Amino acid sequence: MKLTAIALVAMVAIVMQLSPTMACDEKDLLPCLLPIINPPQPPTAGCCQTLRDQKPCMCYFTTKSWLQYTLKSPKGHKLFADCNVPFPTC
């Protein structure tokens, strides 16, 4: 019984760690597009927090997503720098 409970807790912990990467949704980054499109516009705190929260998804966003060219652009790199979030190395 104790072993089953430990296994269940371990499995839930693994699923919780994997779930952010499995739920990568480009729509979450929409608030971050304005500073890229309109560079004098600084990123909002919410945008910067989204970049941090979506860190497990960034390799997907910068390689396979429709956002890849936008995020890889010089303005995209500036967005990461302005938010003090390292640009992903994939």
Task: Write structural notes for this entry.
By secondary structure, the chain is mainly alpha-helical. The chain has one domain: Plant lipid-transfer and hydrophobic proteins (Hydrophobic Seed Protein). It has six helices and no strands. The protein has helices at 2-22, 33-37, 45-53, 58-63, 68-72, 74-82. The longest helix has 21 residues, at 2-22. The model is unreliable at 1-21 (pLDDT under 50). Residues 1-23 form the signal peptide. Residues 7-86 form the Bifunctional inhibitor/plant lipid transfer protein/seed storage helical domain.
Cα-to-Cα separation, first versus last residue: 42 Å
| Overall residue-averaged pLDDT value | 78
Structural class: mainly alpha
**Given the structure, what is the number of helices?**
6
Number of domains: 1
Strand and helix order: HHHHHH
Q: Determine the fraction of residues in helical runs and give it as a percent range.
A: 55-70%
In the predicted model, the low-confidence regions spanning at least 5 consecutive residues are 1-21
- Gyration radius (Cα, Å) is 16 Å
InterPro entries: Bifun_inhib/LTP/seed_sf (IPR036312), Bifunc_inhib/LTP/seed_store (IPR016140), nsLTP2 (IPR033872)
Keywords: Lipid-binding, Signal, Transport
Protein name: Bifunctional inhibitor/plant lipid transfer protein/seed storage helical domain-containing protein
Domain Bifunctional inhibitor/plant lipid transfer protein/seed storage helical: 7-86
